[in-house]
Amino acid sequence: MSYRLKSITRDEHLAFVAAQPSVSHMQVPAWADVKPDWRGESLGWFDEGGNLVGAGLALLRPLPKLKKYFAYLPEGPVIDWTATGLDQWLRPMLAYLKAQGVFSVKMGPPVVQRRWSAEAVKAAIADPQATKLGDAQATMREPEAFELADRLRRMGWQQTESAGEDGFAAGQPRYVFQVPFKGRPLEEIQRDLNQQWRRNIKKAEKAGVKVVQGDYGDLPAFHAIYVETAERDQFIPRPLAYFQRMWTALQAEDDNRMRLYLAHHEGEVLAAATMLTVGEHVWYSYGASTSRKREVQPNNAIQWRMMSDAYELGAGIYDFRGITDTLEEDNHLLGLLRFKVGSGGQAVEYLGEWDFPLNKVLHKAFNLYMSRR
């Protein structure tokens, strides 16, 4: 089977996404509007019968002073990654992008490689010999994913080795934490929360914490405590304008694409979080909490409300997004991993991100430029 690739309209792309059970929120047309420094283009794969059988959002970033572009398909494209003739999918994409002046392509195949149950993660954290989650015995291993990685290498793709601090990928997280919902009653999901989570949810309810859905006008309240969180947890916060742009772009595409939740107690916002939905996949996207009144447990309250609402929306997966793969006790992100593990889900390792240098000199120069920013 040979595939033809061409640019498609937003409507064509959105219709394709709507027909899939799960697509990354970074692979919907509106995500390009969230990233003003990039030019977005929707790509479509067509079979010999003219049917749209694959799609991808490519974000193009210009190289300073040159009419050359770096192309990025975060957590995409959405194609048949199990196909034996994978080259028939990827070669047309590389040829098309090269013709657009692209010198390097980065993609993130949405393919799971390994999974660890909550119990396995807890055991790894408790093991003084374990320093990385990736070194711990996985609960489930996907041989096809390892074979896919070998095939990509043979095609000339290079796995992105560089990672951010404490195991977070420089692009999108390779390790995430997810709670499977599909085929399970909500009562079972609640029972799988650990004792501390269930106790804290009850504490919050007894203390009078109220979790409400916010709107565009509540984004400044979210952002104020998000900045406080960034200072406490040692990361660089995004500006308020970023979240306002995200809200406007995603809500225009689908009024359930993005939600904002706020946990109130005695007139004060103690925690807030954003939730993104595409099909059966729901993500806890950004979270924030103040250091005040932690004893009333607003974080557990807001997460349980979001999980319950995601369930009502028909979610098959509730995704806590990135986790550290570093298990050392002095790691400042280990507390966040413990919190997510308490939800009773599973740690998931994706195949990671892959580069294809179409121009090796410019590819190397761009990587050097980005590393010095």
Automatic annotation (TrEMBL):
Gene3D superfamilies: 3.40.630.30. InterPro entries: Acyl_CoA_acyltransferase, FEMABX, PG_Glycine_Bridge_Synth. Keywords: Acyltransferase, Cell shape, Cell wall biogenesis/degradation, Peptidoglycan synthesis, Transferase. It comes from the Bacteria. SUPFAM superfamilies: Acyl-CoA N-acyltransferases (Nat) (SSF55729). Pfam families: FemAB. Belongs to the FemABX family. This is Lipid II:glycine glycyltransferase FemX. It comes from Streptomyces aureus.
